[in-house]
Amino acid sequence: MPNYSLLSIPAMWLTAQVPHAYAVNLVKRANNNRFDNANSKGSAFQASLKTAVPAATLARYERAEAAHRNGMENLPFFAAAVLAAKWAGVEEELCEDRGVGG
Question: Is the Membrane keyword given for this protein (predicted)?
Answer without folding.
Answer: yes
